[in-house]
Amino acid sequence: MQLQLNNLPTYDTVGVLERVNRFCKRSIKKESKIEGLKLALSMVDLTTLEGKDTPGKVKQLCYKAMHPHDSLSDLPKVAAVCVYPSHVKLAKKSLKGSQINVASVATAFPSGQSSLNVKLEDTRFAVSEGADEIDMVISRGAFLSGEYSYVYDEIASIKEACGKAHLKVILETGELETLDKVRQASEIAMLAGADFIKTSTGKIQPAATLPVTYVMLDAIKDFYLKTGKMIGMKPAGGISNSKIALQYLVMLNEMLGQKWMTNDYFRFGASSLVNDLLMQLEKAVSGHYQSSNYFSKD
Q1: What's this model's pTM, rounded to 2 decimal places?
Q2: Do the Cβ atoms of 170 and 137 come closer than 8 Å?
Q3: Is 96 a catalytic residue?
Q4: Which end of the chain has fewer beta carbons closer than 10 Å to its terminal beta carbon, N or C?
Q5: Domain ranges of the chain
Q6: Among residues 122, 135, 195, 276, which one is catalytic?
Q7: The CATH homologous superfamily of the domain defined by 31-283
Q8: Tell me: the pLDDT tens digits for 79-116?
Q9: Looking only at Cα atoms, what is the longest distance across the chain?
Q10: Is 77 labeled as catalytic in the residue annotation?
Q11: Please, which residues have CB within 8 angstroms of residue 200's CB and are 6 or more apart in sequence?
């Protein structure tokens, strides 16, 4: 397909930083903070994507997803557990009956440096093993070379291979160089059929940042105003504490509104974030922090 990207906004980095800084200064009362922490927990894709992943680690992660902290009542479960395709079947079995989704990376994650046929087979295998969601990476080399139609066609092909599984498209924003290119890549992904757009693999620095997420949320807003279609957002990588997670939720609410304040349309790609959320919730309930030794290391 010959893809035209016309009339996209351009971004002044200083202006974006000033806008983001305002979100970070919002005051949140105790009751709202507790609800925000619980909401953030419900939005986490609890993730393990290491070459040393074992069946035992995947099982442990799935148990934690279902039982984040048994001493605290009324806690939501996380949204999904994200693993490599080879561990999807085990994760699906371990999470049976929990209503927690299984997400799987695919398409030669994290580099994306493979043929389309390999990427399609990778995707189809993950779906056949039971993946509810696929996190794919775009071909950044092609994008940065201006081959926008190639990137669009590849995403559209992966979307078709997903079948009923939702597709999250990872832009790897740390490699895209400018905020304007982040906007272009977001636009291509949404036009090609992405259900979510996602910042990062977590393997490249910088990963998720508030300015980059601001630009992607702005793209989602404009896309919704043009098409009426709601696209989800997933910042991933480097979001390790509750304070930052709440800043993301403030920005989400003020930019897109209450309809997006659900794990159907917003996710955090994280593991260490969960423990900090639980520590903050324990503090809110009991008045004191628990030692980190009370929480599993993911």
Answers
A1: 0.95
A2: yes
A3: no
A4: N
A5: 31-283
A6: 135
A7: Aldolase class I (3.20.20.70)
A8: 999 999 999 999 999 999 999 999 999 999 999 999 99
A9: 59
A10: no
A11: 170, 171, 172, 173, 174, 207, 208, 235, 236, 237, 238, 269
